């Protein structure tokens, strides 16, 4: 028996390399979803992880830091927020290069 495939459509899944139960400390949305200001998840709505190990959507943290009362502190632990390592994206179980908007 021979099979002839006339049409094939590939599907892929991705998720951020963070624990499933972890959410943005500012908007409280799951990281696989977007921040309130974005329509689509992924590279357009990246994550930032501080050296204090707290994670946030980049857009949420930028809005937070712009507030006069934030004083550049982490919203969770109130230590000065210093960006740590960029978060990896896992696609089909394989690590891709670190996401970096400067590249």
Task: Characterize this entry briefly.
This is Anaphase-promoting complex subunit 11. The protein contains 1 helix and 5 strands.
The CATH superfamily bears the name: Zinc/RING finger domain, C3HC4 (zinc finger)
Per DSSP E runs of 2 or more residues, the count of β-strands stands at 5
Helix-strand pattern: EEEHEE
| Oligomer kind | single chain
- Give the N-terminus to C-terminus distance in angstroms: 50 Å
What structural category arises from helix and sheet content?
mainly beta
**CATH hierarchy, class:** Alpha Beta
CATH architecture: 2-Layer Sandwich
Helicity range = under 10%
Strand content: 5-15%
Shape: elongated
Q: What is the count of structural domains? A: 1
- Provide the CATH topology: Herpes Virus-1
Could you name the ranges where pLDDT drops below 50 across 5 or more consecutive residues? Answer: 89-103
Radius of gyration: 17 Å
For the sheet with most strands, the description reads: 3 strands, antiparallel
List the helices and strands and how they pair.
Layout: E1 14-16, E2 47-49, E3 55-57, H1 58-66, E4 89-91, E5 94-95
Antiparallel strand pairs: 1-4, 2-3, 4-5
Describe this structure in words.
This protein has 103 residues and is mainly β. The protein has a single domain, classed as Zinc/RING finger domain, C3HC4 (zinc finger) (Herpes Virus-1). Helices cover 9% and strands 14% of the residues. It contains one helix and five strands. β2 and β3 form a beta hairpin. The protein is elongated. The termini are far apart. This is Anaphase-promoting complex subunit 11. One of its GO terms (biological process) is cell division. GO terms for molecular function: cullin family protein binding; ubiquitin protein ligase activity; zinc ion binding.
């Amino acid at each position: 028996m021979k099979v002839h495939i006339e049409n094939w459509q590939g599907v892929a899944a991705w998720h951020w390399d963070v624990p499933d139960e972890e959410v943005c400390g500012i908007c409280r949305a799951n990281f696989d979803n977007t921040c309130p200001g974005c329509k689509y998840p992924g590279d357009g709505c990246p994550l930032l992880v501080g050296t204090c190990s707290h994670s946030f959507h980049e857009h949420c943290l930028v809005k937070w830091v712009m507030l006069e009362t934030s004083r550049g502190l982490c919203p969770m632990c109130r230590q000065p927020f210093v960006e740590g390592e960029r978060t990896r994206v896992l696609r089909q179980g394989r690590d891709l290069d670190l996401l970096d908007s400067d590249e």
